[in-house]
Write a structure and sequence with these properties.
The complex is a heterodimer of chains A (about 325) and B (about 270). With about 325 residues, chain A is α+β, with helices and mostly antiparallel strands. In chain A, about 25% of the residues lie in helices and about 35% in strands. Chain A has two domains: about 220 residues, P-loop containing nucleotide triphosphate hydrolases (Rossmann fold, 3-Layer(aba) Sandwich), CATH 3.40.50; about 90 residues, Nucleic acid-binding proteins (OB fold (Dihydrolipoamide Acetyltransferase, E2P), Beta Barrel), CATH 2.40.50.140. Chain A has nine helices and 18 strands. In chain A, the strands form four sheets. A six-stranded mixed beta sheet of chain A has the order 6-7-8-3-9-10, with helices on both faces. The radius of gyration of chain A is 23 Å and the shape is globular. Chain A starts with a strand and ends in a 7-residue tail after the last strand. Chain B is mainly α and about 270 residues long. Chain B has 13 helices and two strands; from the N terminus they run αααααααααααββαα. A two-stranded antiparallel sheet of chain B has the order 1-2. The chains are: A alpha+beta (about 325), B mainly alpha (about 270). At the A-B interface, strand 6 and helix 2 of A face helix 8 and helix 9 of B.
């Protein structure tokens, strides 16, 4: 129903090549997340799929049909914008009903569908309000309502949660995931937040400088990062990357050790270091340790591991969970 | 302690604001007071309490026809505003939504025409008006006022249109709106407040414009500005009657301004506050 295929898609703005060439397949019903640092081309890629930007080369197939030259309104996609982009002069009801009105649906059908969408999103009590009288989370729901109301082939989300506060973001993340399970429509979600990517995605596409670094399921990327970029980007806190003699001992140019894949002790271990900062989160303790001859190492310990600034700790990496990379940054 | 200081400051600032407002308003107030004096009282020097005579208003009405210049003012200010909007909306629209490298330069160039003193082009304009038989006609004056206010109208509208976020237009496109649907259902409703305050401000500017209206008219198309000026004649100055005429001339626009204060304040601070 709603598969999306990119073939050799490229985009240049004037002289600048933002996306050199991308091939990607997103299957029907999949929740795909484009993730990467700002400026990596993820939003541009989404806008190319939406049709809001024209491709400079290559083809975009939606449901197997070439949509490269179709107008945004002809592609059967719905988009949720970062700024919500609600129509400020329309009530919530008219905002959600707008795509149906544009499709020429009659008023009774529009009302029925808007009411259904409002029920799913808990907006029934707010239907007659204007967007300016809603909270950030409610506005975001209206934007989602406007997207789901006409049952599109595919949803596009452009960093929809980045304007919300942290607590609300976690809530909405959950709601969007549940909504996806309910509607089962293909979704493409753009974010710079790897936690959102890990928690929501069926398939993560890691982008960097307009190129795809790796495509895979969240756990694939976590356990088998293809290169140093993905290794450093996925996982929180970030993976420790160590080069030099310690790496050479593992026959690698660089080795990666995740903060959670070490054993900590106050008495003995492989690496000895001094705690620079101890962050106690209750459930976990993040220790930032200065290790002699290696440098800064971040580790994750249980909440009951109580050390403080200036204490000496010993760190032993789990030998089976060391990631090795060659001099080109690729996983060995 | 800090609290009393801040209260004192508040009182001081409020007092300063009131004094400034009174200073600005005083000429208008004194005009109204003078209009209620007799001619002898009016030239006797500074006095704030008039004898409250309405005689001047009666004289002004009977000596000269108020209705004709009033209608001229209405036609010229409303007409020039509508004409200006017809030209300015599409051009501001184009510059706001598809700007090019030169858009800023064009805008600056338009504004620069306002920096030129009007008197510098008085002779050529007068000759053009004479040769095209536009002197003392409503249509001539309407075109003239439209042209001199056009830069301001375009600037104001440009600033308003720029405030409409591009993402909303993209959302409309994603929602399946055609270009026409986008304009009718999304752009126009969002642009109307801006257009309305631009329109109000322009009507006021045109209503009060005195340089061209006095010089390019004699009797037929003379608006209220020329009506006021006619009371300072070679036969002598009639302060009280002049004041009565002025009061009558500004009354309609003050009333219009009073009812549209909110829009106007937004119009006057255009672009400065969001």
């Amino acid at each position: 129903m709603g598969s999306i295929t990119l073939q050799n898609v490229s985009k240049t703005f004037g002289e600048v090549s933002v996306i050199p060439s991308i091939d990607l397949q997103i299957n029907d019903g999949e929740f795909a997340v484009f993730v990467g640092p700002s400026g990596c081309g993820k939003s541009t890629l989404l806008r190319l799929i939406a049709g809001l930007e024209d491709v400079s080369g290559g083809k975009i197939l939606i449901d197997g049909v070439d949509a490269t030259d179709k107008a945004p309104s002809q592609r059967g996609l719905a988009m949720v914008f970062q700024s919500y982009a609600l129509y400020p002069h329309m009530s919530v009801r008219s905002n959600i009903g707008f795509p149906l009105k544009m499709a020429g649906m009659d008023k009774a059908d529009i009302d029925r569908k808007v009411n259904d969408a409002a029920k799913i999103l808990n907006l029934t009590d707010y239907l007659e309000r204007k967007p300016r009288n809603l909270s950030g989370g409610q506005r975001q729901r209206v934007a989602i309502g406007r997207a789901i109301v006409r049952s599109p082939e595919c949803f596009l989300f452009d960093e929809p949660l980045s304007n919300l506060d942290a607590a609300l973001r976690v809530n909405m993340r959950l709601e969007i995931t549940q909504l996806h399970q309910q509607l089962k429509a293909t979704s493409i979600y753009v974010t710079h937040d790897q936690v959102e990517a890990m928690t929501m995605a069926d398939k993560i596409v890691v982008l960097n400088k307009g190129r795809i670094e790796q495509v895979g399921s969240p756990l694939d990327l976590y356990h088998k990062p293809a290169n140093i970029f993905v290794a450093g980007f996925i996982g929180s806190p970030k993976m420790n990357l160590i080069s030099g003699a310690f790496a050479a001992a593992h026959n690698a140019h660089t080795i990666g050790v995740r903060p959670e894949h070490v054993t900590l002790s106050t008495t003995e271990g492989t690496w000895k270091g001094k705690v620079v900062v101890a962050e106690h989160l209750g459930s976990d303790t993040f220790l930032h340790v200065d290790v002699e001859g290696i440098g800064h190492i971040t580790t994750r310990a249980g909440g009951e591991f109580t050390v403080k600034h200036g204490d000496t700790v010993f760190i032993t990496p789990d030998p089976n969970r060391i990631h090795r990379f060659n001099d080109k940054g690729l996983a060995i | 302690m800090a609290r009393t200081v801040s209260t004192q400051r508040k009182i001081a600032f409020t007092a300063v604001a009131w004094i400034l407002a009174m200073v600005i308003f005083f000429p208008i107030l004194y005009t109204i007071i003078t209009s209620l004096k007799t001619e002898t009282e009016a030239i006797q020097g500074f006095r704030l309490i008039p004898s409250f005579t309405l005689e001047n208003y009666v004289t002004v009405q009977t000596q000269r026809d108020y209705f004709k210049p009033f209608m001229n003012s209405v036609v010229i200010s409303v007409g020039s505003t509508i004409l200006a909007l017809l030209v300015a909306i599409p051009s501001a629209w184009a510059m706001a939504f598809s700007p090019t490298k030169r858009t800023k330069d064009i805008l600056m160039w338009m504004l620069s025409t306002k920096m030129m003193p009007s008197v510098a082009v008085l002779v050529p304009i007068y000759l053009i008006f004479r040769d095209t038989s536009l002197l003392d006609t409503r249509i001539g004056l309407t075109i003239m006022l439209m042209l001199i206010n056009l830069p301001i109208v375009i600037w104001m509208l440009y600033t308003y249109f720029r405030e409409i976020p591009g993402e909303i237009l993209e959302a409309a496109r994603m929602d399946g709106a055609s270009l026409w649907g986008e304009i009718v259902y999304v752009l126009t409703p969002m642009a109307i407040p801006g257009i309305a305050s631009t329109m109000l401000l322009n009507i006021i500017l045109a209503w009060n414009e005195a340089f061209w209206t006095i010089r390019l008219t004699t009797t037929n198309a003379a608006p209220l500005t020329a009506f006021i000026a006619s009371f300072s004649s070679p036969q002598g100055l009639f302060w009280a009657k002049l004041s009565a005429a002025s009061t009558l001339a500004i009354a309609p626009i003050v009333i219009l301004g009073w009812f549209s204060q909110k829009q106007l304040v937004r119009g006057l601070t255009f672009g400065a506050v969001k």
